[in-house]
Amino acid sequence: MKLQQNIALRPYHSFACEEIASFFTTISTKEALIEAIQWANENNQPYLILGSGTNVLFTKQFNGLVIKMELTGIQKLQETASELLLQVGAGENWSHFVSYCVQKSWGGLENLSLIPGSVGVAPIQNIGAYGVEVSEHIISVDAFDTIKNEWITIPKQDCAFGYRTSIFKKEANRYIVCAVQFKLSKQPLLRTDFGGIKAVLHARGISNPSVESIAGAVIYLRSNQWPDPKILGNTGSFFKNPMITTTQYDQLMIRFPSLMAYPINDHTYKIAAGWLIEACGWKAVTKDQVGCYKDQALVIVNYGATKGKTILDFSEEIIESIQVKFGILLERSVNIL
Ligand SMILES: Cc1cc2nc3c(=O)[nH]c(=O)nc-3n(C[C@H](O)[C@H](O)[C@H](O)COP(=O)(O)OP(=O)(O)OC[C@H]3O[C@@H](n4cnc5c(N)ncnc54)[C@H](O)[C@@H]3O)c2cc1C
What we know:
Layout: E1 4-8, E2 20-27, H1 30-42, E3 47-50, E4 56-57, E5 62-69, E6 74-79, E7 83-89, H2 94-103, H3 121-125, E8 128-129, E9 132-133, E10 138-145, E11 150-155, H4 167-170, E12 175-185, H5 197-203, H6 211-225, E13 233-237, E14 243-245, H7 246-255, E15 261-263, E16 268-271, H8 273-279, E17 286-287, E18 290-292, E19 299-302, H9 308-326, E20 335-336
Parallel strand pairs: 2-5, 3-5, 4-20
Antiparallel strand pairs: 1-2, 6-7, 7-12, 8-9, 10-11, 10-12, 13-19, 14-16, 15-16, 17-18, 18-19
The protein binds flavin-adenine dinucleotide.
Flavin-adenine dinucleotide (FAD) binds next to β3, α3, β8, β12 and β13.
């Protein structure tokens, strides 16, 4: 195991703050992972598994071992006339993996094109976009169970997938995801109903969409909507869309008739967090080199703050103002460290 000391984390997370990890290693085999965990345990060091760092905010020095996942590989497990089973290493880049599938016209993940991050975190966050959640295409997840000290395969039905959550988040720090098994289709059900995909296809004169043309539309839409984290530090949506009861919704609608919300079931509404943030006047506001993105209030961007705490404080101000105005507690979707 190649162990580095006092490593600047700036290149390893998309907010690009100047926090330090006291120890750092990258692992590309399962054996190396076990070795790194053993080293941390024997030396009384906490450890943190890191993918591409696009959903974390370091707010202080990490006094322990950061283990960067670089377990790669895409393996075809099974292929029939209509579908495929693929096994993909946790350290593969998500966006590259989706492009790989799209190029082969294997359908299912095209609406999730261009989401930054690693394959291993896709099930943890149950990443989603344009009407699709990754859990719809997951068969099982291979992980190391740090409590039982054994390798396990967790079938989809035991992954407790929900909105941006899963068993891997609910039982935080227990499982280390090493590979994910996906089921993709050669005759996919194409999803064009969300977020302007249809309009882009129409503008491009496409009436009979394919996996490729949908991916192209999603990439076009995302490129115009989200700031590129390589240019402007961010983690995408900083907050989750909050859920409220129908009674709360009815009361809020009396005071705020333009409230943007969607019914989830007979008892629950999902509120657009971006709408709440805009309604509190935060869109495009900048303070201490941190701001709400001009085109998408849900995104907090780092314009040059060196400390993650500055970003955390800015998000706290947003949360407080929304609590005061709407009585809704916004939850962060990013992992605070
Ligand atoms: C511009 C932008 C747009 C985005 N758009 C979307 C979107 O549309 N939809 C969406 O869902 N998300 C979106 N995201 C969020 C982000 O891309 C995803 O959450 C992504 O899955 C994070 O992957 P990562 O490898 O960077 O995770 P990291 O930030 O590296 O890690 C996230 C968490 O998982 C833990 N972890 C990392 N690897 C493992 C592992 N192998 N096993 C166990 N724990 C692990 C870490 O300790 C950390 O707590 C966006 C982010 C950005 C910057």
